[in-house]
Design goal:
The protein is mainly α. The chain has eleven helices and two strands. The protein has two domains: about 130 residues, no CATH class; about 110 residues, no CATH class. The protein has a two-stranded antiparallel ribbon with strand order 1-2. Helix 7 packs antiparallel against helix 11, helix 8 runs antiparallel to helix 9 and helix 9 runs antiparallel to helix 11. The chain starts with a helix and ends with a helix.
């Protein structure tokens, strides 16, 4: 069994892993939007997971398999095994039934969770895994984003954020890092718009308004960073076209 786990990543070719990742991406999209109705609700569910998947694919295509799998596991499928075990142990002898409802989503997330776990273990034993912490050259964005996450979601979420930023930055793929950061705040403009459409603005706390404005500022800095990151590539394309 251990031998199978250890050799799994080497037995699965790049093409097969890509196909499996495509399937996992479709599962992630399905799980995130399943059962959600209403334009803004679907949009608020779809945008973050789309950005997360963009980051995962950027990492995967650049052959940073371990980090891509870790990110996908942490953001999407990490709770799969725990949820399944909770369902198994939710049986009530008095009622003679499970207290948790079994669903297709649970099964899909469990399968994805186990696959990612096996792949991460296999890659670790075959290739090893080291994180190279690189200097963050966007101090204002880092500070504002960190403060936003801390005040809006708490210390544990901030620690989780630091973890995925370090992991993504260690690959040198800044575009993936910015996509992950944007996934945390991308829904804010639509939440504000929906609040006015639903006439709920007058019932919104001052804290929520402050966090919304804070988040919009963070979005601005992320967009500026993305523009600067993509500018050299665009200029190169123009030069090639002129030639």
């Amino acid at each position: 069994m251990f031998g199978f786990m250890k050799s799994l990543s080497s037995k699965l070719s790049y093409e097969i892993q890509m196909v499996i990742l495509a399937v996992l991406s479709m599962i992630a999209l399905f799980v995130y939007v399943d059962g959600i109705t209403g334009f803004f609700n679907v949009l608020n569910a779809l945008l973050p997971i789309t950005l997360i998947l963009i980051a995962v694919w950027l990492l995967f295509i650049k052959k940073n398999y371990m980090v891509s799998y870790i990110i996908l596991f942490l953001f999407v499928f990490g709770q799969g095994l725990r949820t399944f075990i909770q369902w198994m142990l939710s049986y009530h002898f008095f009622f003679e039934d499970f207290m948790m409802t079994f669903s297709l989503n649970m099964l899909l997330v469990l399968a994805a969770c186990l696959y990612l776990l096996l792949m991460m273990i296999s890659i670790y034993f075959v290739e090893g895994f080291k994180i190279q912490i690189k200097a963050w050259n966007l101090p204002m964005l880092g500070l504002l984003f960190g403060l936003y996450v801390y005040f809006n979601q708490g210390l544990l979420m901030l620690l989780f954020t630091v973890l995925y930023v370090i992991l993504s930055e260690s690959t040198g793929i800044r575009l993936a890092t910015l996509a992950l950061m944007l996934s945390q705040v991308v829904t804010i403009p639509f939440i504000v718009i929906q609040r006015f459409i639903d006439d709920a603005a007058k019932n919104t706390r001052i804290f929520d308004w402050v966090m919304n404005v804070f988040g919009l500022v963070v979005i601005y800095f992320i967009v500026i960073a993305l523009i600067k990151l993509l500018e050299p590539h665009e200029k190169q394309v123009k030069v090639v076209e002129e030639k």
